[in-house]
Amino acid sequence: MSQSATGPELDRLIQLLARLPGLGPRSARRAVLHLIRKREQLLLPLAEALQIAAERITLCSICGNVDTRDPCAICTDPRRDPAILCVVETVGDLWALERAQATRGRYHVLGGTLSPLDGIGPDDLSIAALVARAQNPEVREVILAVNATVEGQTTAHYVTDLLHGTDVRVTRLAHGVPVGGELDYLDDGTLAAAIRSRTPF
Amino acid sequence: MSQSATGPELDRLIQLLARLPGLGPRSARRAVLHLIRKREQLLLPLAEALQIAAERITLCSICGNVDTRDPCAICTDPRRDPAILCVVETVGDLWALERAQATRGRYHVLGGTLSPLDGIGPDDLSIAALVARAQNPEVREVILAVNATVEGQTTAHYVTDLLHGTDVRVTRLAHGVPVGGELDYLDDGTLAAAIRSRTPF
């Protein structure tokens, strides 16, 4: 009966939308109804934008970023500092750092973290490509901008070991109190790290 | 900088997705990254499904349901009982009743509820069309399956008044304890209604 109410076309659309992170079957149905109500303003433009993305978006063969060209806009931007390589786990992390305008260097997307339990080893990440890029004498510093999780730190240690003996300086993100954060809500590890890394005022 | 990181195509896609109910800018970015990772399994099929929906989906001129044909599959289904007209606020409610296989009758989608504060009067809803359908001697019962909210009940009373004097029987949904519900978590109004409408065991 549910089939006859929504029809195969809408059922398929709902199923596909429900597979997006953050959406389930119920919110996908709401989204589809919203799309139908906003046919001109939302449904048609979204269909077109997805088509364009599907046609043009590709992965940068140098850094792993997503863009409409390969190499990507960041890798080919002459204003970016080629001496700094900022290593991130995912493209989402790269976007976050770009929004924050946190670095003027270039990026390297690992594609995840080492996770033996999930069967993800060094060969599943673009670690070899990172080591190769770091051999370039232009590169002076590798910033390990991985998540402060066990997997992220494990991966950071593994990469650091591989880069040992090269001339590049390997750095990692500072631990500390988030800007705007309240001490009372922070975990002990963060507070201890913030005290340890205290700076002159 | 955010522009240069994601590019205009992805920025537009993120903006459009962020306008879906249940998604914001952050979850839209995550959704886009997920779509790019699942290009063949999700991005291309979703673009196609949206295109198909945009081309084929229309509103049923009789009941207001969405379907690929007009009149819709429910209005033209000879197995549905033409004596029962189930009045709902939205197509989402119609889908919910169909999933529950709650009625064998046909539907009438009002398109919302009366809401003077929001400037929504009888002419903004398909109330006149409902009254016209109810004149059909085939129709014996109008079930007011509107939400148990103030607006829903106001609308139900308004429709009931308009149908007064016709031969149709006007009914509404029962109030009571939801199936699987725990008394301790229910509001007083629901509990009182459930006691009032108690049935022999």
Automatic annotation (TrEMBL), chains A, B:
A zinc finger (C4-type) spans 60-75. It holds the Pfam family Toprim_4. Residues 83-178 form the Toprim domain. One of its GO terms (molecular function) is DNA binding. Signal peptide: none annotated. It comes from the Bacteria. Keywords: DNA damage, DNA recombination, DNA repair, Metal-binding, Zinc, Zinc-finger. InterPro entries: DNA_Rcmb_RecR, Rcmb_RecR, Rcmb_RecR_Znf, TOPRIM_dom, TOPRIM_RecR. May play a role in DNA repair. It seems to be involved in an RecBC-independent recombinational process of DNA repair. It may act with RecF and RecO. NCBIfam families: recR (TIGR00615). Belongs to the RecR family. This is Recombination protein RecR. It comes from Tepidamorphus gemmatus.
